[in-house]
Design brief:
The protein contains 14 helices and 18 strands. The chain is an alpha+beta fold. 32% of the residues lie in helices and 25% in strands. The strands form five sheets. The protein has a five-stranded antiparallel β-sheet. InterPro entries: FAD-bd_PCMH (IPR016166), FAD-bd_PCMH-like_sf (IPR036318), FAD-bd_PCMH_sub2 (IPR016169), FAD-linked_Oxase-like_C (IPR016164), Oxid_FAD_bind_N (IPR006094), Vanillyl_alc_oxidase_C-sub2 (IPR016171). Keywords: FAD, Flavoprotein, Oxidoreductase.
Length: 394
């Protein structure tokens, strides 16, 4: 397969325009670290942003950074860290789950709306994304947004591109708002709670005025207990005060510890990257969003039918669930669970033949699918950009 690696935006425009004229279907990618995700699409060639690298704008005083889409996330984080700043939404690294190599790109973070545990406080990647440049399926260069949050007039293409998985355009540059890196991080660990008790504790913490930045529950293998994690970040004095007050609010839950330092950082990284479920790729991985209070019921429903393992992030609103690969990898059971309890499920990891046979993303009602198809046609009339990556025929 031919791999196009444009050197600049104009080069990308020419490649896509010629592909549209010839009907050449293009696989849109960065460095390919998330290639095994989504529906397998049948394409004729590939266009990669790996040649579009470098920070194009960084103004620490304005808390804004712009980078070409193929810039490694690690490079962006390194530049920000040198000025005591960070990407507020804590983007996940999928390489460990997917078994891929290479460096994840900042463009993929925007294109797939990749976020981590801090989303409960800072919002998703799309909430920090304030500007994009991209080439649509006609080969036209489009710019939307800019360097400040309130500069949108008309259709907000920035939010539309976030999470579009390369199906609407080939991103060439992204601009994010950033935040100062906290001085201290401390994690309250409550041990021995079952799922329902853990969600109660997490809900109490998130409903407090103490600015929780991480709220997760890691059940034990026997599902009768586990570790419930509540993270606070900020200035040292502030963290001390908030932690003491939080412990008072949660005093009915016993067996509390405070975890800090390298061990705490590694633990939250394992939550962020879902490596708690790592099993050498021998099971399917699902990402399920639901109302936090419904999480335990949904997990129990799945466990009645499948040999499932799971943990909770986002205060219980996000479940990472692993299931056996046999048959549909649990798709029918997961879809039934989201219909019953509300929410949506995405198949993150499974062999290509499974991802071809089942809905990878939560099926949309027909009215929404008509809207999805209409947006796709308006941005990519010839249907050449990542065809079928999210939904069959789109």
């Amino acid at each position: 397969m031919t791999v196009h690696t444009p050197r600049d935006e104009q080069d990308a425009s020419i490649i896509i325009r010629e592909a549209a004229d010839k009907g050449t279907l293009l696989n849109v990618s960065g460095n390919g670290t998330k290639a095994p995700m989504g529906r397998p699409n049948q394409t004729d060639a590939s266009i990669s942003s790996s040649g579009l690298t470098g920070i194009t704008l960084y103004e620490p005083a304005e808390l804004v950074i712009s980078a070409r889409s193929g810039t490694p996330v690690l490079e962006v984080m390194r530049v920000l860290a040198a000025k005591g700043q960070e990407l507020p939404f804590e983007p996940m690294d999928y390489r460990y789950l997917l078994g891929t190599k290479g460096e994840p790109t900042i463009g993929a973070v925007a294109a797939m709306n990749i976020s981590g545990p801090r989303r409960i406080m800072a919002g998703a990647a799309r909430d920090s994304l304030i500007g994009v440049r991209f080439v649509n399926g006609r080969g036209e260069v489009v710019k939307s947004g800019g360097r400040v949050m309130k500069n949108v007039t008309g259709l907000d293409l920035v939010k539309l591109m976030a999470g579009s998985w390369g199906t609407l355009g080939f991103l060439t540059e992204v601009t994010f708002k950033v935040l100062p890196k906290p001085e201290r991080m401390a994690t309250l660990v409550i041990r021995g709670l079952d799922d329902r008790q853990a969600i109660e504790a997490l809900s109490t913490a998130l409903g407090s005025p103490f600015d929780v930045t991480g709220a997760a529950h890691l059940p034990d293998r026997d599902r009768r207990g586990g570790s419930t994690l509540i993270r606070l970040e900020g200035f040292r004095v502030s963290v001390d005060y908030r932690m003491n007050e939080l412990k008072r609010q949660l005093k009915r839950f016993r067996f509390m510890d405070i975890l800090e330092g390298v061990g705490a950082e590694a633990l939250w990284q394992s939550v962020r990257d879902a490596t708690i479920l790592t099993d050498q790729g021998q099971r399917a991985i699902w990402r399920v969003s639901t109302a936090p209070t419904k999480g335990p019921d949904l997990a129990a429903h799945v466990a009645q039918a499948l040999d499932a393992q799971w943990f909770y992030d986002w205060g219980g609103g996000l479940l990472w669930i692993s299931t056996p690969l046999e048959g549909d990898a649990g798709a029918a059971i997961l879809r039934e669970a989201t219909r019953t309890f509300g929410g949506h499920a995405t198949l993150v990891r499974a062999p290509a033949e499974v991802r071809s046979a089942v809905d990878v993303f939560e099926p949309q009602p027909e009215a929404l699918m008509r809207l999805t198809r209409g947006i796709k046609v308006s941005f990519d009339p010839a249907g050449i950009l990542n065809p079928g990556r999210m939904y069959a025929g789109v």
